[in-house]
Prior knowledge:
This is Sugar kinase of the NBD/HSP70 family, may contain an N-terminal HTH domain. Strand 13 (220-227) and strand 14 (230-232) form a beta hairpin. The model has no long low-confidence stretch (mean pLDDT 93). The chain has helices at 12-26, 31-38, 42-54, 119-134, 174-182, 191-202, 262-265, 268-275, 282-291, 295-319, 329-348, 351-354, 368-383, 385-388, and strands at residues 29-30, 58-61, 75-78, 82-89, 93-100, 105-112, 142-150, 153-155, 160-164, 169-172, 186-190, 211-217, 220-227, 230-232, 323-328, 358-361. By secondary structure, the chain is α/β, with parallel strands linked by helices. The chain starts with 11 loop residues before the first helix and ends with a helix.
Amino acid sequence: MPSSPTPAPGTRANNLARILRLVHEDGAQSRAALTERTGLNRSTIADLVAELVQRGLVDERVPDVPGRVGRPSPVVTASANVVAIAVNPEVDAIELAAVGLDRGILVRERLLNEALPTPDAVAATIVDRIAAWRRGPLADSRVEAIGIAVPGLVRSSDGVVRNAPHLEWADVPLAELVATATSLPTVVDNDATLGAIAEHRYGAGRGIDDIVYLNGGASGIGGGLVIHGRPVAGAGGYAGEFGQNRPRISADEDRRTADGVLEAEVSRRLLLDAVGLEAADDETLDTALSAAESSTVTEEITRQSHVLASALANAVNVLNPALIVLGGFLATLAELRGVQIADAVAELAMSESAEGLQIRQAALGADRLLIGAAELAFADLLADPGERS
């Protein structure tokens, strides 16, 4: 995800951005807390908050504290009425949500696909849902921008989808296409990259600065990296494609393809087949796998966990993360075979690289990609609220 330019430190524009980001990322803050965290004086904080209120970016209220003597410090919250439209087009469904600047999800829909969605169909769906929401739950809201999380290689500089093989998209100028259709600023990035950002800021990776994130979805397995607290996308924005790596498979019975990549061996489709489902969202698949008593299902879960662990060990050896976060159907594998996966990673990875390693399920669940897409959409506003609002 490209970095948005931030105003020079010490300027009014920079201080506005600091306050808005604090209440966006950390939730409601009293003026007193903002004074302490920023080092600015009380009158400056009051002036900056007043400007953000005037711009409609934050709300301020005086809390009702029973029994308190004196006037309590006003509480500042990011506005729920400034929203980003978050979109995740997948092979089985298009998920959309309106996410407030306060990170609340105002409305969310999952629209099943009858066929692979084309870029034009995705753009038309976004136009349709925004129009419908503006007549309903977003009637009093201001739509800031659109963020799209795509399961494929995205050139982050301009939002061109270079290759989304499962969607059968190649060199699609998706950001331009959707921006033209909606007349709204639109940004696009890889879904797992955005999932990594969301989990780092708000989920399982909060407070940890070296993270490998793997996302398991209908289109396969993607990855995102956070190194020294910053997302790492690579020269073109394509880093983290763990699903295209070839895992070490030592047991022939664990192999499903002659020379398969990780996402061919560790597959949502194979898990759906094992439980007899044609399609399902993550929650439904998780429930089916957790409740299954068939040896066919349990053996498939165990097999995929073996293969996944070998891929994770390779990532540990190369990147030496403090934390691995698993999202989507990979989180279900971690839930059901967490000890097996952790033990296998410890056995296969270099012991020094695996010291202190934690493996966790994504804490944001089904919201992770949409929250990541919303963060992408809000990036320019958060970097310079005086310029964008």
